[in-house]
Design brief:
Number of domains: 3
Number of strands: 45
Radius of gyration: 43 Å
Shape: elongated
Helix content: 10-25%
Mean pLDDT: 87
Oligomer: single chain
Largest sheet: 29 strands, parallel
């Protein structure tokens, strides 16, 4: 009996250990128990690591080899090139990012990955368990001049990142997360060597945060001295600060032709595209980030200040030919929300041809605006916001510099976006009828922009042809009609071919002529007795004349 009790106790203890290992900090999520670094391959599919002959990766095990080698501090991948040869499914195990900074190590990826048009799917990262920066890559840096680092031509689909601020290895630091990479740092003087282009990511990032020590972005959590081109995100991010649909905190980076979509909710410093835009060197404006031809179509909701449809807090930065859609919602009451359709709070910032089509919902109207919640210092040129969506808001809520933003109706605002952001209107292939033609007036049709409904080249629709009816004489048997013209579309009748004189159908009719039957049926009037008498006299007179004529012939004979 005692022996069986001991066995039972051991089994219970084992079960408890297993349970503790299995249950994730996110009990409601499907976080794999096993780690990819325990299934890493021992070699790649081929290649020597040069630009012309990159290391070739064909499956999750080989990708895990790269992550494991970098995390263990192996430096022989510096300046090396890698290429995906096949789509990779990472759903079987929990992903340990390639490189890390501020987590359990300071080892970075210092090479270049060519996605080769392939897709990585099913990636799950749980920073709360592994205390790593969360992303496919944890940290990318460049330690050697001329060493190209970055990623291109890659899709990451249906990723899930879990981040717990309280689980930071360094409690005084920041937790970083981005579906592609948590953090990028290219050494000073090497701007432009960290390149990320033609990348698309989708998925969710769930953050447990109270202090707001976060750097969370759909693509990149924290970027510094990079070039990001032709990238797209479609993400749902909850619970964080310093959060953007594309990047969390940005400095000294160039973004071109990028689009962010999805939903963001959290604390402060939230933007549809970038959470916090600043510099890499204090007040040195030359180290600010630039955003050109970029779009944010994101529903952003903040429980703290500095929230915008494109950027939450722009301490520095230059924004050109960019636009925000979606919604901006601030739940702050009683103090400054600083919520704007394009930017929450702006200082030392330049906006050129930027437009907000976002709907802003905010309790404090004085610190909320259709374009900016608060504008401290900087310039605007050619910018606009939708005052139909935001009828109760000014363009700028608190305007310390008296910058002006055009308030315009929805169609005009969208037209501005077409011209300034997309470069031109995109007209539909089919013509749209603007005015129906009638029998009396010409109509019109034109090509319409599929984005803003602006009219392009137009064409005349001729008047509707009238049906001509020849004149027809009336007879005793049937009615006739005058010459007239009829419009079958509207049912109107006209006395002329130009449809200048309208008539009724009744006016076209000529009544039948009267006949014998009609005469006989005429009503009798007055006394007809004298008529009979005259008829009798005529008969008698005729008889007398005939007798006289006969007598004269007889006498002559």
């Amino acid at each position: 009996m005692k022996k069986s009790g001991k066995i039972l106790g051991v089994l219970l203890a084992v079960c408890m250990v297993i349970t503790m290992n299995v249950v994730s900090a996110y009990a409601d999520s499907s976080v794999p128990v096993t780690r990819w670094d325990n299934y890493a391959a021992t070699k790649f599919a081929g290649g020597t690591g040069t630009k012309d002959d990159p290391y070739r990766i064909e499956n999750g095990e080989q990708l895990a080899k790269l992550a494991k080698d970098v995390s263990e501090g192996n430096t022989y991948y510096k300046g090396k090139y890698f290429r995906l040869e096949k789509n990779v499914d990472l759903s079987a195990h929990r992903w340990i990012p390639i490189g890390d900074y501020g987590g359990i190590s300071y080892n970075s990826f210092e090479g270049f990955l060519d996605g080769n048009g392939k897709t990585i799917s099913g990636m799950v990262v749980d920073q709360s368990k592994d205390k790593q920066s969360a992303g496919l890559f944890g940290y990318i840096s460049n330690a050697t001049k001329g060493n190209e680092v970055g990623v291109k031509d890659l899709t990451i689909a249906n990723a899930a990142l879990y981040v717990d601020e309280s689980m930071l290895a360094d409690p005084s630091g920041f937790v970083s997360a981005g579906i592609l990479v948590a953090g990028v740092m290219v050494n000073d003087g090497y701007k432009g060597t960290g390149v990320f282009e033609n990348i698309s990511v989708s998925g969710t990032i769930t953050v447990k945060a109270t202090k707001g020590s976060n750097k969370i972005g759909g693509l990149i959590g924290d970027d510094n001295r990079c070039i990001v081109r032709n990238c797209a995100t479609d993400v749902t991010i909850t619970g964080a600060s310093n959060t953007g649909g594309m990047t969390g905190i940005s400095c000294n980076t160039t973004f071109e032709n990028c689009t962010a979509k999805g939903r963001i909710s959290g604390l402060w410093g939230l933007g549809g595209f970038v959470g916090y835009a600043t510099t890499s060197n204090g007040n040195d404006k030359t180290t600010e980030s630039t955003f050109t031809n970029c779009i944010a179509d994101v529903a952003v909701k903040a429980s703290d200040w500095n929230v915008g449809g494109f950027v939450g807090f722009a301490e520095f930065g230059t924004f050109k030919n960019s636009a925000s859609f979606g919604t901006v919602t601030s739940t702050v009451t009683g103090w400054e929300p600083r919520a704007g359709g394009f930017v929450g709070c702006a200082g030392n910032v330049t906006f050129v041809n930027c437009h907000s089509a976002s709907l802003v919902t905010c309790d404090r109207k004085d610190t909320c605006g259709g374009f900016a919640g608060k504008f401290v210092v900087g310039t605007t040129a050619g910018c606009s916001f939708d005052n139909q969506k935001n009828a109760n808001l000014n363009g700028i809520g608190t305007n310390d510099t008296e910058q002006q933003v055009e308030a315009c109706i929805t169609q005009k605002n969208l037209s501005n976006i077409c011209v300034d952001v997309y470069g031109d209107h995109h007209y539909a292939e089919e013509l749209t009828v603007d005015q129906e033609a009638t029998c009396s007036e010409e109509g019109s049709k034109s090509y319409h922009c599929i984005r803003c409904d602006a009219k392009g080249k137009s064409f005349v629709i001729p008047k509707i042809n009238l049906t001509h009816v020849d004149a027809k004489a009336a007879t005793a048997e049937s009615a006739g009609n005058i010459e007239y013209w009829h419009c079958e579309k509207c049912g109107k009748y006209y006395s002329d071919a130009k449809a200048a004189h309208e008539i009724t159908l009744e006016q076209t009719v000529i009544e039948k002529l009267p006949g014998k039957e009609a005469i006989n049926n005429l009503p009798k009037t007055g006394d007809d007795s004298r008529v009979a008498l005259w008829l009798l006299l005529l008969a008698v007179s005729g008889g007398v004349l005939l007798k006289n004529f006969a007598d004269r012939r007889k006498n002559a004979d």
